[in-house]
Structures are given as structure tokens and as C-alpha cells.
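Session log. Operator J.P. requested a structure for one protein chain; no other inputs attached. Running the standard single-chain path with C-alpha cell output.
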Amino acid sequence: MNDRLKHISFFKQLDDDELKQLGSISRIKHHTVGEILFYEGDVSNKLFILIEGILKAYKTDMKGNEIILHYLYPVAMVAEMANLNRAPFPATAKCESDVTVIEIDYLLFEENFLKNPTISFEIIKSLSQKVKYLENIITTHLTLDATSRVAKFLHDNENVYATMKHNKIATILNMTHETLSRTLRKLKTLGLISDDGKDFHIINKEGLYALFA
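Structure written below.
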């Protein structure tokens, strides 16, 4: 456990005794694709840190439809705002792949580590990244057309694109699978990307940027 913790950026400044103490209130858990990590409304008494795999955070509307809020990739704190506010989880977290998380007893973590300036700063950074992500979602969906949205996604998430199915990406971008496929063909014709179904890479990153900047 200590070896895992000391390689996580949030805890890189902790000494051996602090890592041992943190390890005593933590455990590693593995989850399979499709498994629910927690449901919207569950009590948030654990601090989750995603270290392997992809998590989807979503809410459910009155008709039972999923409203996707965020995809999380390693290494990331998960719903830490709920912990800080002593509030239930505001969304459901579902495993989009096999997932490994570190679960930390939050009350003991708060008591023993939250006053550490380095830890507090890392939590602030994590929260600010999520705010930036939400700002990007708002900007993307309100001001960009389909071509611009796809170009921005590829520009910002080149490595992620290769690991996700097109229907997932279409859902993230709030467009149909057909629109996504048509737009990808357009970007290939423009010579901005290369994608033969197996290998994908960006040929002209500046050209992609120009479509949404």
C-alpha cells in the first residue's frame, strides 16, 4: 500500500511515517466494467482515488435517462467535494472499464491529513481542474458546432480517443454517432487526423486548434 501511495502525486510530499499512517486507513479495491462505485445520494464516508481505469459520473433524470457529467481518468480524486461538505454523493459513478481505486476512510483522513498544507493544496488543484472541466463543457455545448466540438475533443484528448468507443465519445459531445463519424471523415479529408480503425494520430494539431479557437 505504501508503495502505491507514494507514487500518487497528491501524497508525494509525505514522509515514510505519514505514508504508513495513511496506508493504515486505506485499502485498494478492484471493480469490473459496468460495476457501480457509488450511487447518487449515497453517504460519502470514503475518499476515492482512481488509479486505474475509467469512471463515468452521471445523474439520472425523472425519466430514468442518464445525464453524463464527467469521465474520470487516472490519477484522480473522485467526488471529493461531497467529502469536504459532508454531503451525499451528487452523482453516480460507474466503471466504464475495469477499475482500481484506493479507498480512504475520510473522517480519519480529515482528522490526520487535511491540515497538511501540501494535501490541502492538492485537493484545491483537483477541485479547480473539475471546475475547468465543467467550464469547458458549457463552452463546448453552447458555442461550438459539431466540427469544432470534435476538433477540440481530439486536440485535448488524443490518448483517450484511442481507448473509447465512438458511441461514448458521441454521448460526451452531445451528438449522434452518425454526426461524429461524418465529422471525423471531414477532419481526415482536411488532412488533420489519420485513423484507419486501428491506429489514430493527429497530423496537424495546430489545424485542429484553429477550428475551435
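Operator note: The mean pLDDT is 87.
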